[in-house]
TrEMBL record:
Domain of life, source organism: Bacteria
Signal peptide start and end residues: none
SUPFAM superfamilies: MFS general substrate transporter
One Gene Ontology CC term in the entry: plasma membrane
InterPro entries for this protein: MFS, MFS_dom, MFS_trans_sf, MFS_Transporters
Residue span(s) of domain Major facilitator superfamily (MFS) profile: 16-406
Gene3D superfamilies recorded: MFS general substrate transporter like domains
Name used for this protein in its record: MFS transporter
GO molecular function, one term: transmembrane transporter activity
Record field: transmembrane: 17-39, 51-69, 89-111, 143-163, 169-189, 226-243, 263-285, 292-312, 318-340, 352-371, 383-403
Pfam families: MFS_1
Protein topology in the membrane: Multi-pass membrane protein
The entry's keywords: Cell membrane, Membrane, Transmembrane, Transmembrane helix, Transport
């Protein structure tokens, strides 16, 4: 009964949300490049772990100016056009990389692709917020996340095979599926930037956090201290979560030199299958829990799931742990987006998404950089223990934020 009811939550969502869910499925079906990027740089180009960490940091840093520029443009111009141009150019760069073999030029092109694709983030986030309301936002974010992971469930398995035998198709497959998925946006999604009448309706509603905000973006952010606190903590959680894509492939290859790449692909395939099967159920069970509390629960699963991989160096641990931390991934991904959208003023959605995305990216980009330096002189097991410790800090901070926010609104 719970399973049936969990799928009923997706009935009656905006038509565009269903289209975007299909679009994300197709795009993720070929999401090969970043899934195996660390291994490509290590196994094909011979980069050391610390160098890989620096490279991945640079990829994230170049996205900051692109995201900031895009945030301003998204609030002033056609959001759909910005999304299409950014992702089309990024896909074309991937296709070019496929023709270059193991050339040292590829990392530089991937940095360029990261800059270009960063323009799509604020546009995508703002469009999703435009198309949803607080009443259907959790379900909508959940469905989009589900669509993406159904694609990844197939994509990781395919990517593991391609990386081993036909590395160039890692790039070609990613680029071609990206272009194919964008056709759905071209033909079925209109620009979503709110009209004056739509802004007025929000101003006259009880959607306090989304009401139009006069003045600068800085002023609007400072009026939302709990949102700022939440975003800063979520960047720490991003640091923790991103270690699964950095430490894990190296750890598995250390333990199983002959089959490490295959095992990593298997673990990530299981990760996406769990997401596909359990997302509706978990979202149904946690639907009445506040987003901040849900994210705190997610951080606990990271502490347990990642921590156990640092304690026991056996293959079965990776396959047990993936069930634990994937549950947290499901909860954190959907609830983080919901909390941010519910607290972003309608006329600043693009800029809020860009600045918030920049703060969150800082945590994600720091993950490979600092961990890469740490792993030069420490084992992968020690890297997992450090990751769990950072997760504990994030959990404590979320508890403090929740209690503080609860006290503030009870007092008001």
């Amino acid at each position: 009964m719970v399973i049936i009811n969990s799928f009923k939550q997706y009935i009656g969502l905006p038509r565009e949300i269903y289209i975007l869910a299909i679009q994300r499925f197709v795009n993720s079906l070929g999401g090969f490049v970043y899934a195996f990027l660390a291994l490509f740089l290590s196994e094909r180009l011979g980069f050391e772990k610390d160098v890989i960490g620096v490279f991945m940091l640079v990829c994230s840093l170049v996205g900051i100016p692109g995201s900031l520029i895009s945030g301003h443009l998204v609030d002033k111009c056609n959001r759909k056009t910005i999304l299409l141009v950014s992702r089309t150019l990024s896909a074309l760069v991937f296709i070019v990389c496929g023709f270059l073999g193991n050339s040292i030029v590829i990392p530089y092109l991937l940095i360029a692709s990261s800059f270009i694709s960063s323009f799509s983030g604020p546009a995508s986030g703002a469009m999703t917020a435009d198309l949803t309301t607080p009443e259907n936002r959790k379900q909508s974010f959940s469905l989009l996340y589900l669509g993406m992971n159904i694609g990844l469930a197939f994509g990781f398995t395919i990517a593991a095979y391609l990386f081993k035998n036909y590395t160039q198709w890692i790039f070609w497959g990613d680029g071609l599926t990206s272009l194919l998925s964008l056709l759905l946006v071209v033909f079925y999604i209109k620009d979503t930037r709110p009209t004056k009448n739509e802004i007025k309706k929000i101003n006259d509603s009880d959607r306090v956090g989304e009401k139009e905000e006069k003045g600068s973006i800085i002023n609007a952010l400072l009026k939302r201290p709990y949102l700022l606190g939440f975003v800063l903590i979520s960047s720490v959680i991003g640091f923790v979560y991103n270690q699964h894509g950095f430490i894990m492939p190296f750890h598995l290859i250390e333990l199983f030199p002959e089959n490490g790449e295959k095992y990593f692909g298997n673990v990530m395939a299981i990760n996406t299958i769990i997401v596909v099967v359990l997302t509706p159920v978990i979202m149904h069970i946690t639907r009445k829990i506040k987003p901040v509390v849900n994210v705190a629960i997610a951080s606990l699963t990271y502490i347990i799931g990642f921590g156990m991989m640092g304690i026991v160096n056996e293959l079965w641990v990776f396959f047990v742990a993936v069930f634990i931390w994937t549950t947290g991934e499901i909860i954190a991904t959907t609830n983080t987006g919901v909390y941010i959208s519910n607290h972003s003023p309608v006329n600043h959605r693009g800029r809020f998404n860009s600045i918030i995305g920049m703060i969150q990216a800082a945590g994600r980009s720091a993950a490979p950089y600092f961990m890469g330096m740490y792993l030069v002189s420490h084992s992968s097991s020690q890297g997992w223990i450090l990751t769990a410790f950072v997760g504990i800090i994030a959990f404590i901070l979320l508890c403090i934020l929740f209690l503080s926010e609860k006290h503030h609104y009870n007092k008001a």
